[in-house]
Structure formats: structure tokens, C-alpha cells
């Protein structure tokens, strides 16, 4: 932001000039009054006259060279004093005018112009006030934007949950209605409809479970059962659980840990959920992938970085910034056949944060990688 000095209006300049003229006139009258009073006092008191004469003689600088008359000394002293008083009065009034401009700018912002900032530059403590006001406006705007995002997120939550519940619920009601009215004649059709209704009911239960887990994790209401985990063994176990599904898609699961015996402190069940989510997503959305890599490496002496990579189709750039949002799905149809509840990665991020770690994602034509950084030891921290 380019700062500028406060520019006075023509009226303010006239006001400042008038202030100077009035101050000068008052000071001259005051000086003249004091000078007259001192002259009268000296003329009416012979002792003062003799004292002044003695002082002038005692501080003379050679013959014929005496100090100036006391009137001249007084006038010189008062002139310096007057200049100081005049400067103080004018600069004081100028600062008041600066404050007036700042207050005017503040009123303009208060009217709802939150994109406006006070860009004045002053050399007094008023600058701290201006900077504080700008910082306050910035934080207020940020809070308003965050509140709007939260409201939008709530609206999206209602919309997405309604869609994800209504679709299987409609199927369940439809098939149960057919069974209830006796429209279905063959036992084979009845069994098929029951199986479909059961599948849809499980889909609704999965959504309810994910919602519950996401809420408890985000609100830190979940309990953590910490234990020492052998990282390589955990990743091998995750890879083994997806081996059959990977073989069907001709995908190779690879595990690499450096050093091989590295251990970390974590909740085994929740970390299992994290890597199950990531590998499941790689299998589901990594179209054209031939490899899924689980790579763990020590970082420094107290951290570990775990990467879940696949060489399938990249994630679109506009999706990368939203991928950890709750209910966000890269595919927009929200079909159960092509995607889940949209809570998996949001839950994953929350679990990582509970372990005082962080997760990020990168994606290009070569690799899509979810990168997790975690501390090896979980220390007690005040949030």
C-alpha cells in the first residue's frame, strides 16, 4: 500500500494560517505588556536601576564595550520563546487536522467500504493508530469471509447429506413398497429387491458412520489410544489388505521404509483408517495407474514423512485446494458407484491433525502424492 502525507484542504490551510496570525498577535501583546510592566517597576524603584547598572559594569568586555541593554536581552529571549510557542500551536493544530482526516476515513470504512484502507503516513504516534485500524479492518474482513465460508459449508452439508440420504432411501422405500403390496410374484425377484434394499441401507449407515466419526474427530471428542507402531509392518499390512483388489486392476502395491526399523507413536486404529482411505482412493480414482507406492522416510531426528503415491490420472488443479473439504468430491455426480460420502479425506486430515501432523497433496502427469508429516513422539500439547 502506497502511503501518502495528509493533504490539507484550502479551508484547513486558511484555518492554520489564521491560527498563526492570532497566536503572533497575542504573543506580541503579551510581550509588550510584560515589557511595559517591567519598565514601570524599574522607573519607580531606584534600587533596581542601581542594580542593573552594577551588573552591566561587572560583565563589561573592555572599555566602551558593555552588554546590551536589558530590554534587548528580554526582547531576544521573548522572541525565541514566541517562536517555540507559535510552532507548538501550529503543529498541535496540524496534528488535530490529521486526526480529523483519519476519523473521516474510519467513518467511510464503517459505512461498509471494507475494501478501503487508511493509507496516510504521519510521523507521530498516530501512525500506530492508523496501522492498528488497518490491521483491525483486515482481521474483520477475514472473519467475515470465514463466516461466509462456514455458512456456505453448512448449506453444502445440508444439500449433500440430503442428496446422499434421499437417493438410497428412495430405492429402499420403492423396493419395500413392491414387497409390501405383493406386486413381486417370484421369490427370485423378491430376494433381489431385498438385497438391493439391504445394500442401500448399508450405504446410509456408512454415511451416518462417516458423519459421526468426522464430527467427533473435528470436535476432539474422540479418545486416542497411543502405542508404538512399527511403520513398515503397518504399511505392509495395509498393502496386503488391498492386494486382491489391486490385482484385479493390474496395479502393483509397493512399500518402502527408510530406515526399515523406524517406529512412531500413534493410534493404530486411526492411522489404519488414514492409509486405508488413501489407498482406497488411489485404487478408485487413479485411473490408468500401474503402481501405488507407500513410502516412509525419517525427516530430521523427530519426524517421519509418509507418501501415498499413484501414477494414474492427475487430480485437476481446481480440485487440489478443495480436496480435504468435507463432502467435496472430484467427480460432481455424487453417484455411489463412482464415489463415497466425500468425508474420507476430511476425516483423514482431522486424524493427522490430532496426531499434531499435517497432510498435503500434489498431482501432475507423473504422480499423484498425498504427503503426511508426523512427529515420531506424541508429546502433551496445549491447544
TrEMBL record:
<dbReference type="InterPro" id="IPR050398">
    <property type="entry name" value="HssS/ArlS-like"/>
</dbReference>
<keyword id="KW-0597">Phosphoprotein</keyword>
<keyword id="KW-0418">Kinase</keyword>
<dbReference type="InterPro" id="IPR005467">
    <property type="entry name" value="His_kinase_dom"/>
</dbReference>
<keyword id="KW-0808">Transferase</keyword>
<keyword id="KW-0067">ATP-binding</keyword>
<dbReference type="Pfam" id="PF02518">
    <property type="entry name" value="HATPase_c"/>
</dbReference>
<dbReference type="InterPro" id="IPR003661">
    <property type="entry name" value="HisK_dim/P_dom"/>
</dbReference>
<dbReference type="GO" id="GO:0005886">
    <property type="term" value="C:plasma membrane"/>
</dbReference>
<feature type="transmembrane region" description="Helical">
    <location>
        <begin position="21"/>
        <end position="43"/>
    </location>
</feature>
<dbReference type="GO" id="GO:0000155">
    <property type="term" value="F:phosphorelay sensor kinase activity"/>
</dbReference>
<keyword id="KW-0472">Membrane</keyword>
<dbReference type="InterPro" id="IPR036097">
    <property type="entry name" value="HisK_dim/P_sf"/>
</dbReference>
<keyword id="KW-0812">Transmembrane</keyword>
<keyword id="KW-0902">Two-component regulatory system</keyword>
<dbReference type="GO" id="GO:0005524">
    <property type="term" value="F:ATP binding"/>
</dbReference>
<keyword id="KW-0547">Nucleotide-binding</keyword>
<feature type="transmembrane region" description="Helical">
    <location>
        <begin position="70"/>
        <end position="90"/>
    </location>
</feature>
<dbReference type="InterPro" id="IPR036890">
    <property type="entry name" value="HATPase_C_sf"/>
</dbReference>
<feature type="domain" description="Histidine kinase">
    <location>
        <begin position="160"/>
        <end position="378"/>
    </location>
</feature>
<dbReference type="InterPro" id="IPR003660">
    <property type="entry name" value="HAMP_dom"/>
</dbReference>
<dbReference type="Pfam" id="PF00512">
    <property type="entry name" value="HisKA"/>
</dbReference>
<dbReference type="InterPro" id="IPR004358">
    <property type="entry name" value="Sig_transdc_His_kin-like_C"/>
</dbReference>
<keyword id="KW-1133">Transmembrane helix</keyword>
<keyword id="KW-1003">Cell membrane</keyword>
<dbReference type="InterPro" id="IPR003594">
    <property type="entry name" value="HATPase_dom"/>
</dbReference>
<protein>
    <recommendedName>
        <fullName>histidine kinase</fullName>
        <ecNumber>2.7.13.3</ecNumber>
    </recommendedName>
</protein>
<feature type="domain" description="HAMP">
    <location>
        <begin position="93"/>
        <end position="145"/>
    </location>
</feature>
